Amino acid sequence: MPRRSLPFLAGLAGVLLAAASAAPAVADDGGFTLKDPRITESSGLAASRQHPGIYWTHNDSDDGAYLYAVDSRTGETVATVTMTGVGAPRDVEAVSMGPGNRIYVGDIGDNLGGTWDYVWIYELPEPKQLKDQTIRATQYVVKYADGARDAEALMVHPKTGRVYIADKNEDGGSLYEGPAELSASGTNVFKRVAAVDLWVTDGAFSPDGKRLAVRGYFGGILYDWNGGKIKRVDRLSVPLQGQGESMTYTTDGAEIMYGTEGEGSRVVAREAPGGGDGSDSASGGGSSDSAQGDSGDGTNSGIKAGALAVVAGLVVVWGLKRLLRRS
């Protein structure tokens, strides 16, 4: 993209933001607000099974090897974990809970679209006591069988412990499966196993492992896990957020929590299709060809306002990314 496109992008963003400000916003359906001023780019979210009501999150990019335990009843950070044994994080984008109360952190982002030959996953035990502490993590080197790529979604199956990554592609991404057991001494090659019809910014397994949910900036898709041969079954009611890049199921599977970047950002709860038992949803949304539109709760004007605000930001982000790639 030529540099003369920058004024156009800025102008378009201004028009969209002006239009958005003229309409009321959609109300939250519940959740909590992240009150810790250190959390400015919450890019991952994972519900603790060991500590009810606690959610783990982290900042985007190279903020440091930190995890924050947030109490959903107050929005306050109740513990900060500093990971050791992992070097300097590069672009941390995701966190997921595995079997045995193991936390997996995905240092898997690549804003330059696949320039890094490898990325990293960190694994550590969830602390039994919630207090500020240092925990040694295991670092795994990860490569993709079909070449480097950007990704923001890391999901650990709650029953098998196998790790999956969904890459971030504007034209629709792919689901990658890691080895049955990750190796700390060698390279872990992730292989493509399925297409994902979304520009994915995060994903999560249902607690029973029977569903895989993925989200993007404008919507989400629910898949039947089907032993890894995913089948699309429904559309997700994803809230319109400024830069929505995180999601997790509640521990009972009844709701999905959606987070976004930004200081003092809001984590919003939405009912999970199928409820806590992971049963088939009665909704016919899964037959739709596109999941990028939110089925929505609230007024049409609110939806339009949120959508315009998000689009305005993404227009600039997308344009700058293209510009940087081609300059």
Description of the structure:
The protein is mainly beta and 327 residues long. It is built from 2 helices and 21 strands. It has helices at residues 5-21, 300-326; strands at 31-33, 42-47, 54-59, 66-71, 77-84, 94-98, 102-107, 119-125, 133-136, 138-144, 151-156, 163-167, 173-177, 187-196, 202-205, 211-215, 220-224, 231-236, 244-249, 255-260, 266-271. The strands form 4 sheets. It has an 8-stranded mixed sheet, with no helix packed on it. The longest helix has 27 residues, at 300-326. The relative contact order is 0.17. Mean pLDDT is 82; it is low at 1-28, 278-312 and 315-327.
Question: What distinguishing features does this structure have?
Answer:
single chain, 327 residues, mainly beta, Neuraminidase, 2 domains, eight-stranded mixed beta sheet, five-stranded mixed beta sheet, 2 helices, 21 strands, 37% strand, disordered N terminus, disordered C terminus, signal, WD40/YVTN_repeat-like_dom_sf, WD40 repeat domain-containing protein
